[in-house]
Amino acid sequence: MKQQTAILHEKATLLRQKQVLLGHGSGGKLMHELIEKVFAAHLLPPDMEMLNDSSVFCVGESRLAITTDSYVVDPLFFPGGDIGKLAVNGTINDLAVSGARPLFMAAAFILEEGFAMDDLCRITLSMREACDQAGISIVTGDTKVVNRGKCDKVFINTTGIGIVDNAVKISSELAKPGDLVLINGDIAAHGMAILSAREELEFESSIVSDTAALDLLVKDMLSVSNEIHCMRDLTRGGLSSALNEIASCSKVGIRIFEDRIPIQDQVRGWCDVLGFDPLHVANEGKLIAIVMRDHAEAVLSNMKSNAQGRQSAIIGEVISEHPGRVIMKTNVGGHRIVDMLSGEQLPRIC
Amino acid sequence: MKQQTAILHEKATLLRQKQVLLGHGSGGKLMHELIEKVFAAHLLPPDMEMLNDSSVFCVGESRLAITTDSYVVDPLFFPGGDIGKLAVNGTINDLAVSGARPLFMAAAFILEEGFAMDDLCRITLSMREACDQAGISIVTGDTKVVNRGKCDKVFINTTGIGIVDNAVKISSELAKPGDLVLINGDIAAHGMAILSAREELEFESSIVSDTAALDLLVKDMLSVSNEIHCMRDLTRGGLSSALNEIASCSKVGIRIFEDRIPIQDQVRGWCDVLGFDPLHVANEGKLIAIVMRDHAEAVLSNMKSNAQGRQSAIIGEVISEHPGRVIMKTNVGGHRIVDMLSGEQLPRIC
């Protein structure tokens, strides 16, 4: 007991904060610190890679991937989707970017007393629609109800199980200098769509969330290249977090080019007005892939032929200089370091 | 869209309530109605059995079980355990009573802004201890933070994956007249321990939660009999819900004997004082098994030799009369119907 208390205090003092801050859920630096110093240190087996979107393990001859995510998005219904669609697509995407074909899903609901049954039905029907589109089945679930005021309407957890082909080897540690960075479309739409629907900051725009399942896109990509080294979906923390995680895990530099990163004019406009860096804003239907240079054009052209990849682009390259860093050549010709988000930008974005 | 709206309204009107009630999370009648008319109707594949504690599917040559549970227990720390220990043991038990050997676990945290980092560390260390004891690994996780007042301190979701031996065939549908009902110890301690620690109703007692992992007990039981037809752990809704689910799924009657059901004197005493039926009160380290009559004594003696089964007892039998009903021969010699809990007894018990 004494030993446990000692460990506890040591860990707690490693963290700069004595309390949980919103930033601990941001997808940025604070969250990485919390994961590393509390969750990974206490919970994960020592050999477990903690920054990939899902974990891969072997059962018999099969390689299975597992991923879990809780969804607490506010508001529940927003332009382009709702919490149910997000909860299904987000978990599918975490499996997909690990190279896994999604098979089964578990769904757990925490409901606030007084939540409208009609809204719950809307959300569950939306989940079913997203499952049917992706060909995944929800096979088990759980329901908890807490007293009024003890949660905010509904939180949904989904856990996905997928199967990984034995030939697939994708990990954030495998980026190599010379590789190119591909993206499947324009960034930051989800975050700005959520923001446009927030009560405290409602604004008029036609921005809709990009929430979409990326499993078919990834399946296509894997069919044309066995040299896709890393893949990440660009959720909390946005493009910058995903690139920084890869740069850090692979101990390489990454150089991106601002003028090649697709973004809708009105998304850029609202980011400017509200003071958000679009590289930090969450997406729910976007991924990056780090691909061997010689394969990049073939993968790109394949991505563009996919419904979820029409706007795909090569936005950068992996370099041996600046290991662990992401550098951006800006529109005006200079260079800047693209840092991981520190603090919190948009709580409850997913 | 029109069609979806029509389905939605049809489903919503099937439910008597227009809003989520605390009772929808009770483990009793209302929860079964919600699961059947919303979650199962919208989410589960048509052939899926929804009332077992976990779902079994095949991957390659392997039979895997998956189960998910969110833990919202209040208070977080209580006599005998905490939310972390509960979150690990509860999910292990859901796998165990399906006959699965627990392999891997995913853990997802929803944290309230301002939650004490020391408490989070205490909880994660407690989870690790429970995992180590059961030999299960947490392999992936998720963290969300919501604004102060939008959740209550911390909610934890755990999803477990286990492997089911091909010879094992356990399901709530398989109880047969003549089978006996076995329990591994005294009931209702968890619920009363939680209640004794609630701010609004703190009372002095030495009751501690029975939270414990039952995987080793189940492994032992399965090693002496291949005629264990059903197993359920006795969480929300207590013994009465588990028995009623089996009676209903197997279309049989179940007769139990009040004087054979183990219960601690002080647990019975506090139930009497506070007006709770101990058959409805939650347990976190108890299971019932429906076993072929000829095997029951061997299974019982094996259970008693296990740390989690010292107080095991045969408490009843499966009968062909009264299909779907649970009947109890009371201490005073009469009979009463043991109904599933309707409404809510103890919100946030797990």
Q: What's the arrangement of secondary structure elements?
A:
2 copies of one chain form a homodimer.
Chain A: H1 2-14, H2 29-43, E1 55-59, E2 62-71, E3 77-78, E4 81-82, H3 83-96, E5 100-112, H4 117-134, E6 137-146, E7 154-164, E8 180-183, H5 189-197, H6 215-224, E9 228-233, H7 238-250, E10 253-257, H8 265-274, E11 287-291, H9 293-304, E12 313-319, E13 326-329, E14 335-337
Parallel strand pairs in A: 5-6, 10-13
Antiparallel strand pairs in A: 1-2, 2-7, 3-4, 5-7, 8-11, 8-12, 9-11, 10-12, 13-14
Helix pairs in contact in A: 3-4, 3-6, 6-9
Structure description:
The structure is a homodimer of 350-residue chains. With 350 residues, the first copy, chain A, is of the alpha+beta class. Among the domains of chain A are: 48 residues, no CATH class; 158 residues, Phosphoribosyl-aminoimidazole Synthetase, Chain A, domain 2 (Alpha-Beta Complex). The first copy, chain A, has nine helices and 14 strands. In chain A, the strands form three sheets. In chain A, strands 9-11-8-12-10-13-14 form a seven-stranded mixed β-sheet. In chain A, strand 5, helix 4 and strand 6 form a beta-alpha-beta unit. The radius of gyration of chain A is 20 Å and the shape is globular. Chain A starts with a helix and ends in a 13-residue tail after the last strand. At the A-B interface, helix 1, helix 2, strand 1, strand 2 and strand 5 of A face helix 1, helix 2, strand 1, strand 2 and strand 5 of B.
